[in-house]
Structures are given as C-alpha cells and as structure tokens.
Amino acid sequence: MGILRDALIAASISTSMAALVLGTAPAMAGEIGRKTYHLPAQPLAASLRAVAIASGRNIAAPADLVNEKRAPALDGDFSAEEAVAALLDGSGLSFDRVGGSFVVRALQKAAGPAVVNSEQDILVTGTRIRGAGPVGSNVVTVDRKEIDRSGYSTTQQLLAAVPQNFGGGANEGTVGFSVRNNSSTNFGFGSGINLRGLGTTSTLTLIDGNRPPLGGGAGSFVDLTLIPSSVIDRIEILADGASAIYGSDAVAGVVNVRLRRDLDGAETRLRYGFADGFDEVQASQLGGFHWTGGRFIAGYEYYRRGRLGADDRRYATEDLRAYGGPDYRQDYANPATIVTANGQVFGVPRGQNGTGLTVGDLVAGAANLADGRQGTDILPELDRHSAYAAVEQDLGGIFKFRAQGFFADRRSSARYFPSNYGGVVVTPDNPFYVDPLGTGQPITVHYDFRPDLGSPTLNAHVTNWAGAASLDASLGRWSAEFHGAYGEQRERQTTINVPNYYRLAVALADPDPATAYNLLGDGSVTNPATIDRVRGGFVQTGRSRQWSTTLKFEGPLFALPAGDVRMAIGGEYRHEWYGYSSADDEFTPGPVDAGSAGFPLGRSVVAGYAELLAPLIGPEQDIPGIDRLDLSVAGRIERYSDVGTTANPRLGLSWTPVPALTLRSTFGTSFRAPSFSDIRHGPGLNQIIPLPLPDPASPTGNSNVVALFGNRPDIGPEKARTWTAGFDFRPAGLPGLSVSATYFDISYRDRISNVAAELFSFLSQRSRFQSLITDNPAAATTALYADPTFVNPYGIPVSAVTVLIDGRNANLSRTTERGLDFDIGYRGGEKDRSFELGVSGTWLFTLKQQITATSDVADVVSTIGNPIDLRLRGRAAATLGKASAAAYLNFVNGYLNNGVAPVERVQSWTTLDLQLGYELGGDRGPLHGARLALSVTNLFDSSPPYVNNRTPFSASGFDPENASPVGRMIAFQLVKSW
User: 919, 910, 913: which is closest to 876 by C-alpha?
Assistant: First the structure.
C-alpha cells in the first residue's frame, strides 16, 4: 500500500529560572563588585532578578522554588554573594557557586536526611558547560507551572501551542490528511515536533539530553506523545542551529524534555475532560524520597481518549458544496456505479437487493457518489500506560551515579477511508451480472465495501523503553562524565475490514447465487459467510533501536579578569538501527510475507566535540559601554558509517552594555544525515499512482497525471547555515518587565524535501515544478502501469494520462527562512496577589524555496502545507489568595490555499483558553496540598477555518496542520500532594 496508504504555550511561557542573566562571572570575592541596593520587601523572584541585573551575575533559581516566597528588604552596599545570601535568609533556600554563577537550591528538610546536591549540575539546553546558558541564544522554557495552568493534558498539545512549532508532519491529526514531512510514515499514530516548519527530521528531540529511539516508518521522528505530561519538569526549546553541540538533525533547533527528578513525598493527579463527540481520562501517581547522599523518584500515568469521528465535525467531509467548494465524493459507492467497456456510466438503483436487476432499472449517465470521510475518524481513540523512574547516589569520594528508565505502551485505533484499487470486474459468470450494453462483456463496478466489511480500521500498538546511566567524577575544579543510553521502540499496525481482491474475484465468479458475491444491491446483500471469506487485511511492524556512549570532561582552563575560561570536551559513539516487516492479505489466496521494504538498515556515528566559554569583560572591570561581554566557540566533527564525515562550528556572542540590556548573536552551520526513510527504496515506499490534478491550462480545469512517489536514488546529506541576532531587556526600575526578540536567518541547501506535499500545485505553478513535469509521456506511461508499485485508486486508464509528475523526495537546491521570535511580559504583585501579562509569537518574513537548480524561487510562507507568517499566544494570569485564573489567546494568521485553482484565501483562526484554579486545603488536614482546576480550551468553540483541502485519496473542509478539530474541551483536574 506504501506511502499514500498510511497516508504550544510559548506565548504563555515564562522562563523556569526566576532570574537568568546569561554568561559566567568571575570567581572573586571581597570588596570588588560591591553594589548599592535599595530593594523593598517583595517577591523573592523580583529581588533576585534585581540583584542579577545590577551585579551582572548569573542567578539560576528554579521557579518552583522561589515563586511563592518573599524576600526581606535589602538596603546598603553588598557584593553579589552577600546580597543573595541576605535575600535567602530564612527562606528555606540556599545557594551554590558554580564558577561565577549562583544556583539557588532547597535546603534539606530538618527531619530528613541529606539530599544529593545536584542543582549545581544544572545544564541548560544549547551548551555542554554546566551552570551557564548558551551564549548568544534564547532558550524558551515551558516549566511545570506553565504545564499545570495551560489546561492541556498531553505533551503533543503543549508543543502544538509553541509559536515556533508548525503542525505539519507526523502527528496524530494528520494521518490520512497529508503526506508531507513524514506524516505518511506515521503508522503508530505518534506525534513529533517541527520547528520552523523545516520538517520533523530537522528538529533534534532529546529526553534529558538523550536521543530517544525513533518512531514512525523507517524511524522518521521522535514520538513525543509517549511521554506523560505529569512527569515533565520542563521543556527547553532552542530554536537555533546546534549541530556543533549535538550533531545531526539540529538544523531548526533542539527540543529537550526534562523529566522530574526531585520529589520528597507523593503527588496524585486525576483529570477528566470532554468535548463534543469524545472524552478523555488521565490519572497519574508520582512518589519520591531522599536519603543520605541519594534520591529516587518513580511515576506512572494512564491516559485514555475516545475517538473523534468525522461524522461529529461537519467540515470533515468530501462534499464541500455547503462551503461554496467542490464535491470531491467518488463514485465508489453503495449502491454502486457501473462502468461499461466503452466507458458509459450507469448508477445502480436504490431500494433493491441486486437480485433480478434489469438493464431498465439502471440509471444511465448518473454515477452514485459516496463520502469517503463518512464513518472515519479524524483523531484516533487511544489507551496509554507509561512509567518512569530515576535514581541518584553519591558514591562517596569523587563519584556520583545517576540512572533513569522509561517505559510506555500505547494502543490506538482509527477508522480509515476506503483505499480503492480501481473497479472490480464482474463477468457474466456472476449470477447477479447485468449487461447494460447487451454485448456480454464484463462490467467494472465501483463499489463501497464498508456496508459489507465495516469501516477500514487501523489498529496500532506502540511500545517504547529506554534507559540511561552515568558516572560522574569530580576531579578538582574539573569534572568527568561517562554516560550510556539505550532505547527501543516497536510499532505494529494492523489494517482490517478491507477486501481481499483474490478471494473476491473467486466469489464473483461463483455461479451459485447463495454464495456468490453480490455488488449490485443497495446495502449489504451478500451472504455473510462469503463476506467473511473475502475479508482481508495488512500488517506492518517497525522496530527502532538506538544506543550511545559518551565521555565528557568539563572545567576551567585559565582565568581572565572577568572570570574563568571554561571548556567542555568529549567524544560520542552512537549506533542506530531500524527493521521493518509486513504481511499482506489483500491480493493473494492467503496472507503472505510482503517483504521488509529494504530493511533492516543501520549506521554507526563517531563524534568529537569541544566548547569554549570565555567571559571577556565583566562588570568589575568598569569599562564604559561594556558591562559584560561573553564569547562561546564550539565545534563538532562527526563521521557516519554510511554518508561520510562532517564538521560544524558555532560562535556565540553576548554583550551587555548596561545591566538591563543584553545583545546577543550566534552563527553556525548544521548538518543532517539522510534518515533511513530518505535512503530507502522499493515497494515499501516507492509508488506510482494516476490521479487528476488541478490544471488551469486544461479546458476541464483538471488533467490526469501519473505521479511517482518515494525516494530518488541519489539522495545525499543536507547542510545549513544559521545566523541569529537578538536582545533581552529587563529594566531594574521595572523588575517585572521582560522584553526579548530574536531575528533568525536560515540558509538550508541540499534539503531533502517531500515535493509531493505540493502535488496539487504542480500544474498550476509550472514555473516552480517544470523540471519535474513531463508532458505527453507516451510509452513511458504504459511501462509505469505495469510496475509492481502501481496502484490506481481513481481508475484512470492509461490512454487518459497526459502528464508525468516526479513527486519523489529529493535534495532541493535551497530553502531560505527569515523571521523574528519575540516575547513581551510583565509580572507584578505579591505572593498572594500576583498577576502576569504577556504575548509571544513568531513572525516569519520569508520562506523561499527553489525546487530545482533551474526552477524559480518561490516564497511559500503562509501557503498551505507551509508555516504561517504570524502565530501569537497571549497570556494573562492572576493569583488572589487560594484562587487563580489564567487565560491564553491563540492566533494563527490567514494564508493562501494554492493547492487549488484558482488560489483561495484561508481565514485566520483565534481561540481562547481559560483555567480557574483553587487551593482546597489549609496548612494541614486531608485537603492540604490539594488543588482543583477547571480548564476550558477553545472557550468559544471556534471551528477551524474552511479549507478546500484535497488529498490524493480523499478531501476535507479543514487543515489539520494549522487547526485542531477538537473544539471546546472542558476538563476538571485534581492534584494532591502528600
């Protein structure tokens, strides 16, 4: 069946650090760097931020530690260290010095044992140097507080709201709607992330810094929906090229999901949500404890969601006439449509059982039509179990041991639209045969088998397990880490309720009316035993494995007046492997091995890297116009066993002219090795399909083409250059205000792109795709019709084909993307009376693509299948005593649907999310630590904007890449800490 068969709260994100000024500071004490402070008693986070700004020191303070605490007044001259100590006095918090930075941590409980002090080991995504942020870059963080108040239940929903993320690609909502960005390989109903819209394979996804096993056919993306949201501590998003730090895939950026590691007690979560047509249930339990020199945490989450049927959403239909659009229903219907040998069409009448049907009963020239979306699902039902555990132990002396394990099991099911393989031939041997022409020739019947077999259904089962362990050694001022990780993901999809065409042909040739197959009635009129014999299916199984080992050293090299120059240096070895198998029961007398589609495939990767962080100028040097100046230099060399060697550098610069303002910039190159799905060939991926495409030059508005899908044999690696420039503004006089913006410029050459994503634009935009179009292919078409990978869902004869389209994946000449990320926020108030306002978003200026070296350059931003030019997420939150409220406004700008002719405008889409929360208990009692929340996402039940969205096999009236069909979701959640 091949490729066409299976064919977040960023604007509300606040940084997980209550105060963070990037860069390192000198390890100096005494009178040097003393400042005068006049700070009132206020929230601790505000005071720490004021000290960080005034002193130029990095103060890393996790929000969950400081958000609910107040600081005393601070008045007088203090060094940065003295100021932090005074603010934390009596708070139950302490701090450690990491280089020139301060890391706030919780004191051990008075009645409990000592805990592992790992806060000093904070490692921010985008750098290998602990206790420092990535110089020149902006890391967007979705912390635990934001996750709780978002109203979302799954990791996929959290990331879908991030403005830098584009919904196109592999996610559970695009299955059956799109073949773009590996969505056609998503036979386990998973979801990946697609930063900048450059593809799921161009975003590196990590879990606690580890590369997890890959999901999807050929291991084409990381399946984030397996990660339970209840065990996430924070999600760090670096929307910047980072191959010099992490290696291949980090072209558009890095998403690092950090799991919870520190809990002394227990936490129970219960959630129930419902929307029109389906509901969801979520329950989780976490528990953890500390002991002398160690800690342990474990968690379990169960999540169940019902199916969302197309029948429950009026726009999920192939008949778009109600919206002023076309009717895409096909003549594979019940009752059926008859096509005679000379091409005449006759409709089978309604209200009869196919017995005794005469030529006079047929409706000449009128095809019966059926909606392929009817009875299908636009979101699958699913049932997921997941578990997680982590342990840390100080081994005494210089060593520390860490380990964690993860397991998930998900079962999904979705009703699918029919996959028609041309009409079914009925000969005069069939007892129900009707001869419209009176010539005794066979007739072709276009028949909808769903009333007989039920809706075709895809049942998927995915399991994932992963483990990682590390041994850390403290070597004086240097540290060493030896790390190893292993992960494996297995996916199995079973397709049921489809006909076996071999056994169907036998049943159609059966002369006995009691057992022969009857295609000419209205409804299901065939003997049930015959139907069961004809019932077929298809099974495909994938298995991904990945293991790696790393040795890293990190520490200071030498001292500059502004502080220590620090280095991280290390080496990595990684092995990736993917295997596939399938069994087919559609075209043979019984189930047969359908092959492994060219798998298994494997590769080994050896890499070496180094990163240098240099504080060139610090505030103690008192240089006019330069309060701080930090430089980072990183480089990485990787050798792939199958695609060769690459070297990638990265530079970062951070300049603070005054304490309130930081200017930053990065430059680097990135590299992505072809994934297994890119280099695979054969029946498992390649496919040849005739279909009608919009063609303005045709008198009928459409031309019949034969299209090639799959991979070209000459696919090679991708390369990119990324440049960013931005600023962070946090004025000391208004400590609650934060303004940041980052301009990005990505030049992506030799990009491996699925040109079939724009298949319906080929003939309407010939200047872009001309080198992929062959007019009047003549003899070549006949040979393609005989190819083993050929299927004909539209029943187009070879004589009707006028164009050959090459829609196979290929290295494009170049993609250039430029835009701006921004966030403006303000926090104010006190502990029990606080508020927050803000907005964040991404504004894409341009996304230019050149399909081939000779084609025109086209700007595809804000066109169907590509990122939208403007996405915003506004936020407003308030706390009043035990009560809290949060609201989020989500905006997706309008865009052009150039997949149809003439081009149509798609309207913008705005939704509002709301959460109301209340702390139920007091300082003690059974409700102590309990919080009840009511969340409503898409409060006004705003439907997705209408889109004339035609796909190769079906159609719909909305675009799941840019809008969710869920509608208003109301959820109740209870969280209890023990």
Answer: 913
Q: What is the pLDDT of residue 803?
A: 92
* pTM of the predicted model as reported, rounded to 2 decimal places: 0.82
**Among 749, 762, 751, residue whose Cα is nearest residue 708:** 762
Residues 6+ apart with CB under 8 A from 319: 327, 328, 329, 371
In angstroms, what CA-CA distances link 705 with 782, 950, 953?
A: 13, 16, 14
Residues 6+ apart with CB under 8 A from 671: 243, 247, 248, 251, 638, 646, 648, 717, 718, 719, 720
Angle of helix 80-88 versus helix 44-55 axis, rounded to 10: 180
Q: Is the dihedral of CA 899, 900, 901, 907 positive or negative?
A: negative
> How far is 173 from 171, CA to CA, in rounded Å?
5
CA distance 506 to 559: 84
Nearest to 817 by CA among 855, 866, 853: 866
Cβ neighbours, 10 Å, residue 798? 15
Looking at residue 611, the DSSP 8-state letter turns out to be E
Structure tokens, 686: 């390649």
Q: 851-871 in b/e burial notation, b at 16+ Cβ within 10 A?
A: bbeebeebebbbbbbbbbbbb
| Residue 157 to residue 225: CA distance in whole angstroms | 9
Per-residue pLDDT tens over the stretch 100-144: 567 787 764 333 333 333 434 567 788 999 878 889 999 998 988
What single-letter DSSP state applies at residue 231? G
Q: Give the list of residues 6+ apart from residue 924 with CB closer than 8 angstroms, or none.
A: none
Q: What share of the chain is helix, strand, coil (3-state, %, to 5)?
A: 10, 45, 40
Strands (E) across 830-922 are located at 833-850, 857-859, 870-880, 883-892, 895-897, 904-906, 909-919
Mean pLDDT across 802-810: 89
What gap in Å lies between CA 627 and CA 609, rounded to an integer? 30
- Mean pLDDT, residues 860-887: 94
| Cα within 13 Å of Cα(778), Cβ side | 1
3-class SS at 721? Answer: strand
Q: Is 65 helix (H, G, I), strand (E, B) or coil?
A: helix
Contacts for 677 with CB less than 8 Å, ≥ 6 apart: 182, 185, 201, 216, 217, 218, 219, 220, 685, 711
